[in-house]
Specification:
Layout (H helix, E strand, L loop, with lengths): L2 H17 L3 H22 L5 H33 L18 H15 L3 E2 L5 E3 H4 L10 H5 L19 E3 L5 H7 L6 E10 L11 E11 L4 H16 L5 E8 L2 E10 L16 E10 L1 H6 L8 E8 H9 L12 H4 L3
The structure holds zinc ion (ZN).
Zinc ion (ZN) binds next to loops.
Amino acid sequence: MTRDKIEEIKTKFLEEIKKEKSTERKKKICKKYIEEELSSVFCSLKELTSEKKGEIGKMANELKKIILEEMKQGGEKNRKEKGKIDVTFPGESPQIGSIHPLTKLQERCENIFSKMGFTVVEGPELENEWYNFDALNFKKDHPVREMQDTLFVKQKNRENLSEKEKLLMRTHTSCVQVRYMEGRKPPFRIIVPGRVFRNETTDSSHEINFYQLEGLMIGEKISVANFKSVIGYFFRELFQSDVQLRLRPSFFPFTEPSFEVDVSCSICKMKGCSTCSHTGWIEIVGAGMVHPNVLENAKVDSSKFNGFAFGVGLDRVAMIEHKINDIRLFYGGDLRFLKQF
Ligand SMILES: [Zn+2]
């Protein structure tokens, strides 16, 4: 089999097709070329050297494409002319979507926490001020209320409404803590994944919405050691690496004491890289022991029960894992980006 032979088949095919007027007969010609000429070309490939095989195989495939295209056009024309469906007509394979990288990550997190006995809980994205701020110990005049740039919902006579009637887009998933604890008896072990909203100007690291995963564990005599153990297991499983943790003091209204958790950079093994800003550590979790006021607001006896809560930004974790440098890619709907997952 040679290049010339294939060129010859191609010329012969195109000539025959050109001469033929009837789409029915054109289709027969296409079938004949695929079943006879092309199949003998493909059969003869095994006798060639691997270099030749690649070259001739490629040409034969190109010719096959031309013939199939001709068949398809004929089929379409035929269908339009007769209004019939040609069942022998080669089908079009449908485009299959893929699971969004954030959904994939969320599912992985849910599996890891499920193994530790955590229940996955969800709550509303349109929240009221009571659950988003007041129940979580944000004082009325507290600067944190201003710090969180919130998307408030326009309502008539808003100033005269109660905190439970004033609506906003939730700024964190922590509101679900109180919603869940109300009317239930401890111990609790839950995670709350979900979408949250901020009134941000978008750039490569800020979006108007993003995904959080909140965790809460309440019981008798829960300590920071329990938290370190749970969060350590989570990150070791997630990154499939023996990560180290570092706790630094911080402030959140709903926890006391509060801390930021840094995870050792598994990309550079703590040698320093752009992901960890050359520090060897990645700031990834906000956490703390749940403030007694939050427990009381949720009707849980704070003299008997205590526990910890934490929040992880899923977008940030996915960006670190896949070395994605722009958060907006998650929400842009660009298929070139999404097809990589
Ligand atoms: Zn690093």
